[in-house]
């Protein structure tokens, strides 16, 4: 039997988005070695993403994740752990896709009248085979009687009394408006592979195959440690200089979207002792997200605290904005390099936290959850207006933006940036639905050009 990881890679391609307009793919297909020596300074977005992608691959090759059974109603948003098979042919009988008349194409095509010999509703078995030179009234979803090879739409016939004939301007071929038995799936076929994210379509398919219970992967636990002397709980009025802790709730919501279970830890103060104590309690989870305290300020003490724990740092900063101080690494433990707890030190500004989570933590979390989906998922869009980089040369920028779907069929979605007051501007962030990517090398993007966006 193939190992789980090969099953996973057989069913899911780990070839991420490759951009159309940029000469440098966001994720190069051949990844650089894992312990990439940084030539000078911080890694670029692409290099940092490659390091993360290498971890994603390592995690996907580890032994199977723990499995649990859940009722179908609770399975949405989880990751399927065992193959989903068709319990019967789909459809289990030749099914009419229209309200109309079941008949033989050769007979009705002459436009001669055919007697209507019976009627079949959805949910009823036909009372017998279709007599020759006759038609049967049939409803959408009803089984087509033996002998009939097409269903003529109600609107395409003329009926007088108990006979019909094909309207003069209409033609019909065998097979039209019938889905043959087993056309969608044969009994026993594997319809979904382990690692699939269970969205509404997959839940509906499971229901149609009679699964009231599904085997899903256990949700990885994600400890969320917010740091900062200025933070107060959300049900507390902030005194002067204080702010409510919005990152804990935001990160918990993001973690939940990725089939994982958030554990919000008490906020740690900006002191070495408070961080040491908090980190001791955080190392049980499958992943650790620390918010704040990773910049270069006097009270940014997270990195030294992680170092005191013996953390291995994969990178401590990325050439992106927002999110430059992002830290990625692993806490040593009994496991090997793939099972050691992964941590991300996310910059405290809410937009920086969200962007770095989606760009770097989400792909690792998806792998930990047993998902075979590849993140982040960039889309192409058409820029609605000229956009200047304005500042931060040499950094890949992720600007809060709003993407609207274009009415014309062949057009890309239109994307416009949202005016914002820096990466702490939650008002602007909440009005956005995506990030617009400004590549590292671009100083200016022209209105109408094709750009990359990341939905959030
Ligand atoms: P830091 O990364 O700790 O330097 O924080 C950068 C900015 O993000 C500061 O303005 C903080 O007040 C803010 N910030 C840090 N943590 C949070 C949080 N949990 N919720 C909302 N804002 C935060
Ligand atoms: Mg802070």
Description:
The protein has 456 residues and is an alpha/beta fold. It is 21% helix and 26% strand. The strands form 8 sheets. The chain has a 6-stranded mixed beta sheet with strand order 7-4-6-5-9-8. It has 10 helices and 28 strands. The protein has helices spanning 4-11, 45-60, 72-75, 105-108, 200-208, 246-257, 272-282, 302-308, 350-368, 426-431; strands spanning 67-71, 84-85, 95-96, 100-103, 114-120, 135-138, 150-153, 157-160, 163-166, 178-179, 190-192, 213-217, 221-226, 231-232, 243-244, 261-264, 287-291, 312-316, 320-321, 327-331, 341-346, 378-383, 387-388, 396-404, 414-417, 434-438, 444-445, 450-455. Helix 2 packs parallel to helix 9 (350-368), helix 6 (246-257) packs parallel to helix 9 (350-368) and helix 7 packs across helix 8. The longest helix is centred in the C-terminal third of the chain and has 19 residues, at 350-368. The two termini are 38 Å apart. The model is unreliable at 1-39 (pLDDT under 50). Adenosine monophosphate is lined by residues 226, 228, 230-231, 243, 245-248, 291-295, 297, 300, 347-350, 424. Magnesium ion is lined by residues 227-228, 270, 292-293, 348.
Low-confidence stretches: 1-39
Structural class category:
alpha/beta
Spatial strand order of the main sheet: 7-4-6-5-9-8
What fraction of residues sit in β-strands? 25-35%
The overall strand count is 28
User: Count of helices?
Assistant: 10
As a percent range, the share of helical residues equals: 10-25%
Which word captures the global form? Answer: elongated
Indicate the mean pLDDT: 90
Distance from first to last alpha carbon: 38 Å
- State Rg: 29 Å
Largest sheet: 6 strands, mixed
Ions, cofactors and other ligands present here are:
adenosine monophosphate, magnesium ion
